[in-house]
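Before a colleague's protein record goes any further, I have to sign it off. Would you go through it and say whether the fold makes sense for this chain? Take the sequence as given and treat only the tokens as open to question. The record follows directly below this note.
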Amino acid sequence: DRSRGPLPRAAATLMASTPSASLAYIAEHGLEEKLTALMNLVAADQPADPLRYLAEKLGAKAKKSPAAPVCPPALDEPPPNAPGAEGMVCPCNLFGSLSYGEPIISKKDKTEHPPWYPSQAGVDVGLRVHNTLTDQSDPVPFIPGRGRRVLWYTCGPTVYDACHMGHARAYLTFDILRRIIEDYFRYEVLYQINITDIDDKIILRARRNKLLADFKAEHAADYAAVESAVGASLDAKGQKLDKKMAALAATELPADAPSREREMHETEKAAAALKKRQFDDIAASVATIREVAAGGGGAASSILEAVCSDAGVASTSAAALERELVEQTVALNEELEAARDALDKSDAAKAKRLAELTQQAARLGSLLARLKALAAASESPIEALFRFAGSELGETLDAEKGSTVTDHQIFNAHARFWEKAYLDDMAALGVKDPDVMTRVTEYVPQIIEFVQKIVDKGLAYKGGSGSVYLDIDAFKTQGHHYRKLSPFSGDTSAADMAEGEGELAGEAAEKKNPNDFALWKSSKPGEPAWPSPWGTGRPGWHIECSVVAGDILGANMDIHAGGSDLKFPHHENQMAQVEAHYDCCKACNYFWHSGHLSIDGLKMSKSLKNFITIREALETYSARQLRFLFLLQKYHQPMEYSQNSMAAAADLER
């Protein structure tokens, strides 16, 4: 009887071996026909993972571990505002975390990642991708959850300053991948990007700019007052840096310290050393400005002679000297790049040579800074002080008067200015517009509601200050995995926690566990604030992505993308929030992280002030050449920005 399918005999054999006591139960529920139908489906489709296939056909009702989260029925329907998500099913039904899955062991560092499965519901065109959820060790099948429909969320910028080439690498990388998926593989992508316009960095920068502008207006013609304030600010900053350097130098890690901890410590030392060199250049520039202000034209001539002497250049004009210093810097940078490429830490001679070249580069940088300060001071000593030491003065003013800045419009105007600059940069790079762009400020009521639901589930709590934290211990007790992208069982490092919680974070002592992180922050004077059940406050950093992505894409997405610096804590915490809110086992099935872009061996970043803005780069190179630059290296691996790498990219275009 072929109407019953190709496997009736297999089903009959199965029935024959079944105890008679069970046959009545099977007959009562019509299981013989259902089992035969399932076996026919498996035989017809021949999936690579038949158990996974059957589990999905049955609605993923396979046995889960006792504490595993179970998605609520409400998620079986797509949210009304998730365009193109028709037919979306519960995240656990779609991706699942089934009992027969095995943990993934990292080939790189032997850490254990939770089980991962591709969807069986989407269209498989044979594409294989790197996925941070599986440690990126080997490419995995890319199969979206809804036919050819791909739901993709990318973390956008925190709009407090100009975008640099590190941002260009991330957004150009994802633009390239998006075009390949859409234009070559013909997937239908719904691409969302979010603008972070509430953040500690925005608050601090907006306040400092406001206070600095007020101070400048008040003391526009009072050089003595400006010089005194700048001097006090530099003294305070210098003492802070010296204390930091001393603490790092005194820190000795145990011989058995993990390699990750050693690497972080070395990076922190290198970053502190860079900040100290930058500060020394500022201090030298301010000293030059003071000399010009005190001695006039005669002092300027003496300073120029001194700079010429230090540079080993015969007496010349300031313009000619600057050209000479730039040429020396270019030549030295090429030698530095070659030395870094050839560096073998076990080779003492090579390490010594690299250190010598680094010192020479620092000396040239200092001479250039003095020369620029000399030119600025010759025009206006007051303006020169603001130009070269305005950042340090702003920090001091903020510490004294930051709490007095309370107008929301000040923070909003700052964010809108840099948001426009970001959009202009993306247009100049030829990056496609997102299908949907969201802003945190547009979602505060939804964020409050989202957090409240997590609190109601007993997975978050209010601290003494009014801030609300995710309870990591309670979260894991309910069967959830924490740190899927970067498995680690210890406490979050102070540096990672500071990055995740921000400079204006509350007291860590109010947390139940040091790893708990803020969903909602109590606002202090001088910070934007909204009313909430826990008092006036503002959203934490991580919560924004969970809420805006959930509103547009639903409870789960196919791809989440961002820079590798966001992997922890931002993306880990975002996943945890989604899973806590929706009682779900997976928020996303593919994480794509673009590698760091480094300059002089350190990650390019605004906090280190070692960056080249996108606009500066486009003054020399075309957008097409920048695109070629990032195609020279695998997108998920780190790369160095240098004269040599840009020359190679320019050659490709030819």
